[in-house]
Amino acid sequence: MRHIRLLAATGTAVAALALTACGSGTGTEDEGASRPSGTAGSAASKTPEGTSTTPEAAEGTGGRAATGTPAARTHAPGTRPSATPAHSGGTRAGGSVVLCNGANTTVTAQPLSRPLNHMLITVKNTGGKTCELPYYPVLRFDQMQWVPQADESTRPQAVVSLAPGESGYAGVLLSAADGSGTGGTTGRKLTVAFQGMTPNSSGGASATPSLPAKGVYYDSTLKVTYWRQDLDAISNW
């Protein structure tokens, strides 16, 4: 009997210990109901390998494309890199500008009596669209092997933009009035080339305006102005 009571007492103590353990939250749980490894919600915050949840990658359309390529940025109207005059308008189709050239304008070259040893080049838009005259004319008399440079003081604030029927102008200093120029000669044929929207690029077809029958005398001081919309801007150049 004593042996039986001892066993019963022992069983009662074990049962009480088990109940105490369950009540304190330290008991063993059913494995089938166990939580996923890690903290709650951690799986939702994880991303596939190689991706990122940093603000830069999560911007989406807020400054970057979804592929990680920087999104296209727009520039304020009328702005260009410093090497190019500001854009003042013109027709754009797929990002291209309609340029004034020998195909959509008429070009004349008129020697002037005042200022002395000067010539005026006039370009009139004869096309149906607004066209632009970037930079300055590239002149070539006969087979001349050098290119007259432009007077930077005549650079406009914006690219000259000609609506149909409008004209743009450039002045030409043919020779030094004091005789300081060298290599003077008479030109019989003049070719006027047009530049594109980047310096020294082609703007399209050239023009060959008529010269006086006696030709035009020029020397090493030959230079030009930038294209200007207002004739008065170069009238006293």
TrEMBL record:
A Pfam short name: DUF4232
Keywords (A to Z) from UniProt: Signal
Coiled coil: none
Region Disordered: start-end pairs: 26-92
PROSITE patterns for this protein: PROKAR_LIPOPROTEIN (PS51257)
Positions with biased composition (Low complexity): 47-59, 66-81
Statement: the UniProt record of this protein carries the keyword Signal: yes
Domain DUF4232 as annotated: residue spans: 100-228
Signal sequence, start to end: 1-23
Biased composition (Polar residues): 36-45
Origin superkingdom: Bacteria
Protein's name according to its UniProt entry: DUF4232 domain-containing protein
Organism placement in taxonomy: Bacteria, Bacillati, Actinomycetota, Actinomycetes, Kitasatosporales
